Amino acid sequence: MHRVDPDEPDSILDEGIMTFCDDIGIDAQDLVVLVIAWKMKAAVMCCFTRSEFVHGMQELGCDSAPALRAKIPEVRGYIAAPSAFKPFYLFCFGYSKEPGQKSLGKDVAMAMWELVLLPKFPKVADWCSFLQEHPSQGVTRDTWDLFYDFMVKVDGSYDAYD
How far apart are CA 150 and CA 158, in angstroms? Predict the structure, then answer.
């Protein structure tokens, strides 16, 4: 397995993931990292277990970091279609929340919305500004899921929403 921490031999943790990202030629803050985590069915942010890593590399059709590096443009395309993007977006909630928590912290949710949704839906910036100005505890699964549906429905303006 790639970049294993000696203290956690069955997992790649944050530093190992950063090195892995360097090896495959991407920034660790790139959206494609989440796509890779989705394909790995990773349960916890900044951690790939051995089984998740092996499964994900098989799912991606890669047997090495150089093979995945060559495939990054294709991997980016995995979420191009709305039918693929929504399951990816839904995955991001569970992946981003702290283990054992039922909701996402507001700051984490806003960072994820900006990374995942803002390129598709510019109105996400308005939502994040609103959240900055209004106190809230966190974002529930229902809010996360329905927010995507809302963004799709309003499609750049609020004219289609009643």
Answer: 10
Q: How far apart are CA 66 and CA 71, in angstroms?
A: 9
Length of the chain: 162
User: How many whole angstroms separate alpha carbon 25 and alpha carbon 114?
Assistant: 22
Q: How confident is the model at residue 7 (pLDDT cuts 50, 70, 90)?
A: low
- The torsion of the CA quartet 100, 102, 108, 111, rounded to 10 degrees, works out to 130
Domains of the chain plus CATH, in order, are: 11-77 (1.10.238.10), 82-154 (1.10.238.200)
E-only strand ranges, 3-124:
11-13, 47-49, 104-105
4 and 25 Cβ atoms separated by less than 8 Å: no
**What secondary structure does DSSP assign to 96-112, as a single string?**
HSPTT-SSEEHHHHHHH
**78-102 pLDDT, tens digit each:** 999 999 999 999 999 999 999 999 9
The H or E element containing residue 138 is strand 138-139
Residue type (1 letter), 136: S
Read off the pLDDT of residues 105-121 as tens digits, 9 standing for 90 and up: 999 999 999 999 999 99
